[in-house]
Write the structure tokens for this entry.
Amino acid sequence: MPTVLEALKNRSSIRSYSDKKIPKETLEKILIAAGMTPSGANMQPWVTYAISNAETLKKVGDAIIEKMDAGITSDQHIQYYPVKWTNPYKKRRIVTGAGLYKLLDVDRKDNETRIEMWKDNFRWFGAQTVIFVFTAKANLEDSEGMLIDCGAYMQSIMLAAQEFGIDSCPQGSTTEFGRVVAEALEVPDNLALLYSVVLGYKDENAKINEYQPARVKLEESVTFID
Ligand SMILES: Cc1cc2nc3c(=O)[nH]c(=O)nc-3n(C[C@H](O)[C@H](O)[C@H](O)COP(=O)(O)O)c2cc1C
């Protein structure tokens, strides 16, 4: 069983999965543990759909891919990525993307392959379970705090999954099509999609799963005042 530090260090975004299903009891244990995530005023603002039904996942994924094919780049409740990228974040994004394409021998100018790779998000990278996290739209009307709580909840899911040898990939790509997801899942109209997390057992032979982008040095992101 990994320690918390090991789980933090060993987790990485996995983008190719075997077809092995996660037992329902295991999924419940992960989500019960994640439900212990702290939240301001104990509001627990996450509203979670844990979907392991292949037909439903295909329906959601196909609906997004259909939009993409029609030239629609987003249809969302919240804007996740910056509209205007600034450094150092812009540079980190480019370096991270370039590293993945290099590992897979994909030319950066090969847009067709890159679009197909992006569409793999909506085929859930072959995973059998996807967690969709919504919050009440009312929570986002005059504040952003729920995003902090639901972000912590995301990490809890991914770390708890590690204990069962289950890997994950967080997805802002679905955030960009939040309205499409909500419609396909027929969720109540008062909910806004924040993100999804793909969960499953990794394909041990997939090269893409070797990718582990580096992090900045401690001094670059932390100021100690002793
Ligand atoms: C909120 C969030 C959204 C993300 N969205 C996507 C996504 O849509 N597709 C994807 O392949 N990776 C996505 N990622 C994974 C990041 O690219 C990844 O976490 C980052 O490059 C660091 O790599 P690591 O997770 O392997 O350590 C997302 C990560 C986060 C936290």
In short: The mean pLDDT is 97.
